[in-house]
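Appendix B, record 7
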Amino acid sequence: MKIRVAVLFGGESVEHEVSIISASQAMNALNPEKYEVVPVYISKDRDFYSGPELRNVQTFTDMNTLKKNVPLVHLVKKDGKVVVEPLKKSFFKKTEEVVIDLAIPVMHGTNGEDGSIQGLLEMLKLPYAGCDVIAAGCGQDKSVMKHMLENSGLPLCPWTWIYGCDYDENKAEIKAKVAELGYPVVLKPACLGSSVGIVIAHNEDELDAAVEEAGQYDEKIVIEQMVQNLREINCSVLGDHFECRPSVLEEVTKGAEILDFKDKYLGSGKTKGAKSQGMASASRIVPAPISEEMTEEIQSLAVKTFKVLGSSGVCRIDFMINDATGQVYVNEINTIPGSLAFYLWKEAGMSFTELMDALVKQAIDRQRRREKRITSFDSNILSNFSASSAKGVKGVKGVK
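Structure tokens (predicted):
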């Protein structure tokens, strides 16, 4: 019997289209002899759609036609099973409900990679691949992530963070703090990815505009000292805190001071008519042309970062190197990386299909472990509740 796998993708994030590409790649990689794929697309309006047409990326070129032809659905629990159910019942044909066995979220950024969709799956008790709610949230919020990594002794470039709304009131104090970091600085929306909203301020005069730009995307802004002689190296990690392993490394090349959205997803946008292959479109060198010693150092730091943040599934940890000094810095974690970082595992001898098998196994193993834990008690303290003397626990003698 095949395992029915719901692949969730899309979402309200600015990385919506990237998610569609990543999900299409993931669905095509799932072995049809083992799995029945159920695409679940979440629109920018947060509506859920499901249908076989969603496996074709071309379906998304005309959203009006998609919304007209693909049924709206919701995920609901019935008789202990999770069902993808159409919202509108048809009088002329039997309404088709699809029972799903597990889910693989392939959603980048807001409401997908930040623990939101994971929370929904937790409430449904549906096994799912990837990070849990807490790990996803910590990985998505760069300020929280950096506090955790810093506390665990991982190397970070000098940084600080602010609420954008506090900038005008505390401008002198914030500018003094940024000056201590040393210009140029990089400003990032705390909870976005794909290099969206990232701005460089080379001096104090540019800081005002940079805060305004980054603040359009998030209330919290991370400000980092810009690494000089920069090389950007990425490493994927697969597994969980019980057992995980790093991939080979890649060096991603860029067309400007920072790796931007076009560099990542359009291969710098230089090839006219070229189709994006998600993160696989980025210009890269695999394996990264660095020493064996530095390779081992980065792989070790990647695994430690993965564990410190409580990550699971397949993640990608991004590093920055000052090529003049050899200093390595942890930049950030991507808990649902573009294209699920399959191109790094391919170089390690693992096919995309085998990677998807590993994610399915991880979802099932985690669910089995959770079912063995004590999460509630059978006793019902409300059975002795008296409405006339509703004092609760504090009313019990000896309990304050």
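Remarks on this record: The longest helix spans residues 352-371. Confidence is low (pLDDT under 50) at residues 268-274.
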